From TrEMBL:
Domain Cellulase Ig-like: 6-86
Organism: Poritiphilus flavus
Family annotation (Pfam families): CelD_N, Glyco_hydro_9
Catalytic activity: Endohydrolysis of (1->4)-beta-D-glucosidic linkages in cellulose, lichenin and cereal beta-D-glucans
Family matches, as InterPro entries: 6-hairpin_glycosidase_sf (IPR008928), 6hp_glycosidase-like_sf (IPR012341), Cellulase_Ig-like (IPR004197), Glyco_hydro_9 (IPR001701), Glyco_hydro_9_His_AS (IPR018221), Ig-like_fold (IPR013783), Ig_E-set (IPR014756)
Name of the protein: Endoglucanase
Residues in coiled coil: none
Domain Glycoside hydrolase family positions: 105-539
Length: 547
């Protein structure tokens, strides 16, 4: 209805399933003690209740009140209204309301495709020319190869840059495969409107295969994985077909090789019914990679002197070993992999910043839980109780914070930390269907879709107020006002590593507010594959489990 939209009211801008916890956050000065829920069309009051007492918080630096309308569960489109300050953006209460952002978060990957044009039929106004054929890529000396070229087309661009990184292709693919293994019907053929739609196989698998095809090309003859395929430095903010600097196959190391081994063993299971040959290719590649890592257990990648693109450097491979051995054990039943799992790798504490460095051990645990048949009971019990305890901690931490977010340290890609925590809650729910885990994951999604200290829905194109100036080269260069849709902004980052890149942050900005919708802000407003991946997982999980 007419009336001013108030930025003081924060909530999930998409909406809530009828069964969900429904809590909006009201910030700043409010005279009223009550709120009401009104029907968006008619303005008719359907519910009212008291606001909670005001409370001041440190992470956001805000004074907040909670408007709790959990008890209201009639389907419709509503706004929250508060006398003296205005109304919220309209949102829905209804079943399947997360389906659109869920599909959108996967369609976002299609927009990241290298080596092919995006046709208007599939890409709408974001159609564009092909870039980066990558069909004869030179080897950088750090790859260990001195002559010849690598044929390495396809794949998704990693982020706002046009690099392709094996480590950060494998980790998100593992998260995407996890959803498929748990909910294979979540996306079916035709759901995504991509070029492969109508071929009889799930659009989800078709989209994931576009990335998988590329990663497979990055395996050296001896089984080791090259680390990345990028230019020497980051290029300007131009469209793919204008970003034509020479690209190289760079480095080779244990981290990339183990992450690949793990997710390729998953791929073997995932592609088995639709393409047996492809599945077998993945398993052979996985075993070879794992063997290389066993023989070369300590090769940490560091950017060579002449290279300044993303490093994805890590020098502790115990999480990667755990993930790879778990997946290979599940796929093959081969005892040697089980013997490689080590007690000390069972660390259940999720710390912000774990991400692509450390989170993968959870993916291994999730796979063992899903495929318990040959797993020794003692190990299973440890994993079950560890995941439950970890989820309990995250849920109670979230309940104690202003936006019900499960983290209290905001680093580069903090939105992925929120969602990786939700992925643990989701798996706790699969072990023990206590609603507190489901609602914990839901409130993490509320945070991502608008119930947060900056009042944005962080998923481009989904919500009333979404990022318009992502650090994303196509979005910056395509001349179209709206960002490419379906891409998740990194989120608040209290370290402000991009402050010298022309980014303007508010003075003395609170950790949870350290996010700006500005194009140069790669430390807060870039997008990245491993941030979209847990969002896809959690949205898919909620959509499957909440109806
Ligand atoms: O974990 C430590 C924390 O303990 C410490 O307090 C803090 C102090 O600044 O640093 C934390 O580490 C940070 C880490 O992100 C957290 O995950 C590093 O400083 C920070 O430099 C690091 O940023 C990484 C960034 O690349 C720069 O290397 C991001 O994790 C990573 O996601 C990002 O990835 C880039 C690729 O390199 C290139 N493509 C885009 C992609 C997304 O921005
Ligand atoms: O665009 C780059 C982004 O993908 C990286 O995450 C980020 C940090 O490594 O760097 C961005 O590139 C910037 C570079 O580091 C410094 N000069 C400006 C570049 C574009 O903003």
């Amino acid at each position: 209805s007419e009336g001013v939209v108030s930025e003081q009211i924060r909530l999930n801008q998409i909406g809530y399933y009828p069964i969900f916890i429904k809590k909006a956050v009201v910030v700043g000065v409010v005279e009223a003690t009550e709120f009401e829920l009104i029907e968006a069309k008619s303005g008719k009051n359907v519910f009212s209740a008291d606001l909670s007492e005001a409370r001041k918080w440190e992470l956001s630096g805000e004074e907040v009140r909670i408007a709790d309308f959990t008890d209201f569960n009639e389907e419709g489109t509503y706004q929250l209204a508060i006398a003296g300050i205005g109304q919220s953006y309209p949102f829905e209460i209804g079943k399947h309301i997360l389906q659109a952002p869920f599909l959108g978060s996967v369609k976002g990957l299609y927009y990241q495709r290298a080596s092919m044009a995006l046709d208007e039929k599939f890409a709408g106004k974001w159609h564009r020319a092909a870039g980066h054929p990558d069909d004869s890529v030179s080897f950088h000396p750090s790859s260990g190869r001195t002559d010849g070229f690598l044929v390495s087309p396809k794949g998704w661009y990693d982020a706002g840059d046009y690099g392709k990184y094996v480590l950060n292709a494998s980790f998100p693919l593992g998260q995407f495969y996890t959803l498929y293994e748990e909910y294979p019907e979540a996306i079916i053929d035709g759901d995504l409107n991509i070029p492969e739609s109508g071929n009889g196989r799930s659009d989800y698998l078709d989209e994931l295969k576009y990335e998988m095809d590329w990663v497979l090309t990055m395996q050296d003859e001896d089984g080791g994985m090259f680390h990345k395929l990028t230019t020497k430095g980051f290029e300007g903010m131009v469209m793919p077909d204008k970003a034509v600097s020479t690209r190289y196959v760079i480095g080779k190391g244990t981290g990339s090789t183990l992450d690949f081994a793990a997710m390729a063993a998953q791929a073997y299971r995932v592609f088995q019914t639709s393409d047996q040959d492809y599945a077998n290719t993945c398993l052979v590649a996985s075993r070879k990679a794992y063997q290389w890592a066993k023989d070369n257990p300590d090769v940490a990648f560091k950017n060579p002197e002449d290279i300044s693109t993303g490093e994805y450097g890590d020098d502790d491979f115990s999480d990667e070993f755990f993930w790879a051995a778990s997946e290979l054990f599940v796929s093959t039943g081969d005892q040697q992999y089980l013997d490689h799992l080590k007690e000390e790798q069972l660390d259940f504490e999720m710390k912000p910043g774990d991400g692509w460095r450390r989170y993968m051990r959870f993916l291994g645990m999730f796979s063992l839980l899903r495929n318990p048949e040959n797993v020794p009971d003692e190990l299973l019990q440890k994993i079950r109780s560890g995941i439950l305890a970890s989820a309990d901690d995250l849920v109670s931490k979230a309940l104690e914070q202003e936006y019900f977010q499960p983290i209290d340290d905001f680093q580069w890609g903090s939105n992925s930390d929120v969602l990786n925590a939700a992925m643990i809650m989701a798996h706790a729910y699969r072990i023990n269907p206590d609603k507190k885990y489901l609602f914990g994951a839901q409130q993490a999604v509320d945070y991502i879709l608008g119930n947060n200290a900056v009042g944005y829905s962080f998923l481009s194109g989904f919500g009333d107020k979404t990022p318009m100036f992502l650090h994303h080269r196509p979005s910056a260069a395509d001349g179209i006002e709206e960002s490419v849709p379906g891409l998740l902004s990194g989120g608040p980052n209290s370290r402000l590593q991009d402050a010298s890149n022309g980014v303007v942050y508010p003075e003395n900005v609170a950790p949870m507010k350290a996010w700006v919708d500005q194009e140069p802000s790669y430390a807060s407003n870039e997008i990245c594959l491993n941030w979209n991946a847990p969002l896809t997982y959690v949205l898919g999980f909620l959509e499957q489990e909440s109806n």
